[in-house]
Write a structure and sequence with these properties.
By secondary structure, this protein is of the alpha+beta class. The protein has ten helices and twelve strands. It folds into three domains: 89 residues, Profilin-like, CATH 3.40.1840; 92 residues, Helix Hairpins; 157 residues, Heat Shock Protein 90, CATH 3.30.565.
Length: 470
């Protein structure tokens, strides 16, 4: 049940309880006062009424009459021409005798009146009217001396006050239960937030309700799970970065030691022939190029993570660009027993690319193949084609590929298929394909990898004509 529905039902029950309470109060008042409102002559008369009547019928002196009436707990009021000429009754009794319509009493005839619980016996003697009024009956409500209207009014006030207290207590109990139910998930969320603030992301917020708070709690738990995942990723990332720095430090130390050793050999005259000197210089140069490659990858990573990688795009035919790249590296790769094959159609495939950054894409793909294809002779196949909206190219090798379950991780930062293997030629940083993916995406393109008789990368770029600007 939702909180909205629960609140609506609670309000309805509160109103219903109030109405039922008022109905019960009205019924109770009607039941209590019904007989008293409809009292008539000879109804619930005082048991000494007949004796009092007999005393009034006798022509006794007033002093004797009052003594007889007093013995029956009656008091006497004598009227003459509508004025009280004698009375030993209380003011309340006198007031009630005046309400008895005494002027309607027939001469020498006794009348019985019952007003507000007091029995009155009245007789008219000449111009005088003698009224004997009984003592007021004890009232359990403490309303002796009050008229029926006053008595009803105070009863109404008392019972309605009691009903108000009961309704308030009922509402308090219901509101307390409803508040506790609402505050249960709120308090749980507050405890969860404090726990998250302290870094504890292990315990989800427990809530078994089925109301509006359920999706809130679920969203909080999902957020906590995401934070936990990010925390674990950051832990892995920081460890990988630490390992990267340690690895690069090691990888830089090896070629740096070689460069220093060969330069020292030149300085000490170890290379005492021109051929030996040239070999020393070539080795030192190659080792410095290896160090430059490592430093360039670190620089590229820094620019990518800070979104500061500059792009200077220009219009290029991707087929021509690949042909030029293949021609430039062909001689170097032949020395490593690597062949480059270019497959292109006659259709022009224009794209807007930063030539230096896209050259880095192709260089990283080439280095990845040289390092991990594990095939000799190695063949690199470059294919380009286009359709109305996009230009496509594939970069494939005839190597061993990668395990199928590892294909989705190829572009992850710091990821290496064999996490335990040593870097090869100082390039095993797990950054090359990560950088490739980001450069391609900065060109509004995409790259995917698959096994196809080796490892194959397919890059898709938008055609120049489909872009809003060059």
């Amino acid at each position: 049940m939702t909180i909205k529905t629960r609140i609506s039902i609670t309000n309805m029950l509160t109103v219903l309880a109030s109405m039922i309470s008022l109905l019960l109060i009205g019924s109770l008042l009607m039941s209590v006062t019904r007989n008293q409102f409809y009292d008539r002559n000879n109804v619930r008369l005082n048991p000494h009424t007949k004796q009092v009547e007999a005393a009034l019928m006798d022509n006794l002196p007033i002093s004797d009459l009052t003594n007889i009436l007093f013995s029956y707990d009656f008091r006497l009021v004598v009227f003459y021409q509508d004025s009280v000429v004698f009375s030993n009754a209380s003011p309340f009794q006198e007031r009630l005798t005046m309400m008895g319509h005494l002027d309607e009493i027939a001469p020498n005839r006794t009348e019985y009146l019952q007003i507000d619980g007091i029995t009155m016996v009245a007789i008219k003697k000449g111009q005088s009217i003698y009224v004997a009024a009984s003592k007021p009956v004890f009232h359990p409500w403490g309303l002796e001396g009050k008229t029926k209207f006053e008595e009803y009014f105070w009863r109404f006030i008392f019972l309605n006050g009691l009903a108000i207290v009961i309704i308030l207590l009922i509402n308090y109990h219901i509101a307390k239960r409803l508040t506790n139910r609402i505050m249960k998930p709120v308090n749980a969320l507050a405890d969860g937030a404090r726990r998250v603030a302290t870094g504890d992301l292990s315990l989800p917020v427990a809530y078994d309700g089925n109301d509006e708070m359920r999706p809130v709690v679920s969203a909080f738990n999902e957020m906590q799970e995401k934070l936990l995942e990010e925390k674990e990723k950051n832990t892995v990332y920081e460890k990988a970065k630490t390992d990267l720095i340690a690895g690069i430090s090691h990888d830089l130390r090896t070629p740096l030691t070689s460069v220093k050793g060969y330069i020292k050999g030149l300085q000490d005259g170890v290379a005492n022939t021109p051929e030996k000197q040239e070999r020393y210089l070539n080795i030192a140069y190659q080792k410095s190029c290896d160090m430059d490659m490592l430093l360039q990858k670190l620089f590229d990573l820094s620019q990518l993570e800070t979104n500061n990688l500059p792009l200077h795009k220009s219009s290029q035919d991707l087929g021509d660009f690949l042909r030029q790249f293949a021609n430039n590296i062909e001689e170097e790769l032949q020395q490593k027993n690597v062949t480059v094959e270019l497959h292109e159609n006659t259709t022009t495939c224009p794209v807007n690319i930063d030539t230096s950054q896209f050259l880095r894409v192709l260089s990283n793909l080439t280095n990845n193949a040289l390092s991990h294809a594990k095939q000799s002779p190695l063949t690199l196949s470059l294919t380009v084609w286009c359709d109305n909206a996009n230009v496509h190219m594939t970069f494939a090798d005839n190597g061993v590929g990668v395990a199928e379950e590892n294909v989705p991780f190829l572009f992850d930062e710091f990821w290496k298929e064999d996490q335990a293997r040593s870097s090869k030629k100082g390039t095993g940083t797990g950054l090359g394909l990560y950088i490739v993916k980001h450069i391609v995406e900065l060109h509004d393109g995409s790259i995917v990898a698959r096994n196809d008789n080796g490892l194959c990368f397919e890059i898709t770029l938008p055609r120049k004509e489909s872009q809003a600007h060059e």
